Amino acid sequence: MQDDFFKRLEPLYGTTGLSQIAQAKVILFGVGGVGSWCAEALVRSGIKNLTLVDPDQVVESNVNRQLPASKETLGEYKVEVLARRLSQLLPDLSIQPNTSRYTKDTSSSFDLKSYDIIIDAIDSLTDKVNLILTANQLAIPIFSSLGAAGRIDPSKIRHADIWESSGCPLGKNLRAILRKNNFAGNFQVVFSQETPRVGYAKSEKKGDKPILGSVITVTASFGMTLASLVLNHLAFENH
Which of 36, 22, 105 is nearest to 68 (CA)? Predict the structure, then answer.
């Protein structure tokens, strides 16, 4: 099975590239509409050591765009559902589901120094900033997803250094906060240049956290682009 598995990957990444992909230890924060598809792409492309971090359980509103979500998995932890699925793809996959929430207060419980790559698909801007700052301090490459909600056109998705990203309100806020923290580093982000649709954020009741409109054609494309950045880095730049 292993020989057949790599048959269509080896012409693209080469033997050395595939070896570097297989040996890398990757930690992915957030397995929702973006992160779940990123995880799927990574494993199907040869990643064998993957940690999934997300505290959320599957709910009905996830089904339209998140890989772990179905009527059979409602109420289960997303990382555990995803770990079961991905374990069926590679017989020697080492996958660790973690139901903890990453925050400034819990960051010390994650042994980030043991990973080669950090992937950020976190919704919370505060937690996203802390993860980016921590990764920079530890000199670990991090790849980050910006805002996918409110968009319907996957052809507007781009990737660039954080300082060169444009057209994304979340990216603008992130850059401002990083400057306030005297952040002098750089990292790759996935973003959309599509203007978010008017009314995409709605609250059922006054004061409630808004429900953000999002569709699988965009969120999954974000996840696939994020995975491609990681794979290309490991295969061709990680020397």
Answer: 36
- Number of domains comprising the chain: 1
pLDDT tens profile 159-193: 999 999 999 999 999 999 999 999 989 999 999 99
Look at the block and give the residue holding tokens 């992937």: 119
Please state the pTM of the whole predicted model.
0.94
Report d(CA 79, CA 59) in Å as an integer. Answer: 13
- Residue 52, both tokens: 């999934």
3-state secondary structure 155-191: HHEEEEEHHHCCCCHHHHHHHHHHHHCCCCCCCEEEE
Domain hosting residue 188, numbered range: 2-237
Could you give phi then psi for residue 8, rounded to 5 degrees?
-95, -5
Residue type, 97: P
Q: The domain that contains 65 carries what CATH number?
A: 3.40.50.720
Count CB neighbours of 23 within 10 A: 14
